[in-house]
Design brief:
This protein has helices at 13-24, 56-63, 79-89, 126-145, 174-181, 201-211, 232-243, 254-261, 268-276, 285-290, 300-313, 322-341, and strands at 4-8, 29-34, 47-50, 70-73, 96-99, 113-114, 149-154, 156-158, 186-189, 195-200, 220-224, 229-231, 249-252, 281-282. It is α/β, with parallel strands linked by helices. It folds into two domains: 4-156 and 200-224, NAD(P)-binding Rossmann-like Domain (Rossmann fold, 3-Layer(aba) Sandwich), CATH 3.40.50; 158-197 and 228-280 and 299-333, UDP-galactose 4-epimerase, domain 1.
Length: 342
Amino acid sequence: MKKKALFIGGTGTISTAIVKRLVNELDWDVWVLNRGNRSEVLPKDTHFITADINNEKEVLEKIGDLTFDCVCEFIGFTVEQVERDYRLFKGKTKQYIYTSSASAYNKPAANYVITEGTTLANPHWEYSRNKIACEEFLMEKYRKEGFPVTIVRPSHTYDERSIPVGVHGQYGSYQVLKRMMEGKPVIVHGDGSSLWHLTFNKDFAIGYTGLMGNRHAFGEAFQITGDEVLTWDQIHQTVADILSVEPKLYHVSSEFLSAVGEKYGYDFEGGLIGDKAVSVVFDNSKLKRLVPKMTTTVRFDEGARIAIDYILSHPECQKEDPEFDSWCDKVIAALEDAKNKI
């Protein structure tokens, strides 16, 4: 008999790769509950439940008497949302996996080597504080009632539709690629030397699926990242090499970016000071004890090439952002003007 999983969301960068691995490689029976968005990206054998997860009555009616080996939550951002999940799935699943975030770790941590025991605290980003609160609620339910929760903490996971960059506008990374291809300077936060982990979504799926149905994962938290560690300058240089251009990297302090980005709607305090600006090296030994297959199979230079080839051959991924482009020019011009006045 096949194992059954229910995905809440299921069509995002991370969850799509997991669903594909479960259906195509591991022979799970997978159900996806969402509003019907992007269902075409999932395998044909996937079962779909079209519903609004916030409408508990509708969800209960559509699930009926189905029970699951694992319920996988990818769009739970507040305590109210995981409380809803607890009400819906208590007694209907053997395991509940909550997707938190590695940004929940203290910024800056006492040690740049991050383990699951690193303190959770992020004064710079409400998103991360909400994730911490969700974790605390779920672990309390595990301790008091045995609710079978497993917590995963991804860091920077990407797929073929986007290139990881530190500073970008509301439409993602394409405008940064465009600036590179046009020979324009690209803003890199800090001095470009802080350390960062990047994980291709197919690699993340190996770690995640290895925790599904694994009783040793109940009541535990696991960070899931690749093993490769790069500086932000190396990340941008790799992208430029693939594009066959000479990068013009323009370094700007994260504090300055946060200050001048706020009025344009760019949350660089959270996204940079509360996350990407801090050097991190993730120790994934806890995960690897349970999932020995977890390793980096797609290096960043390989994953970036896959992504760039895909983006440049799919016009729908080439969403230009003239407002962000203009903002970059203004920031660079202002700093150059300040240099000339001193």
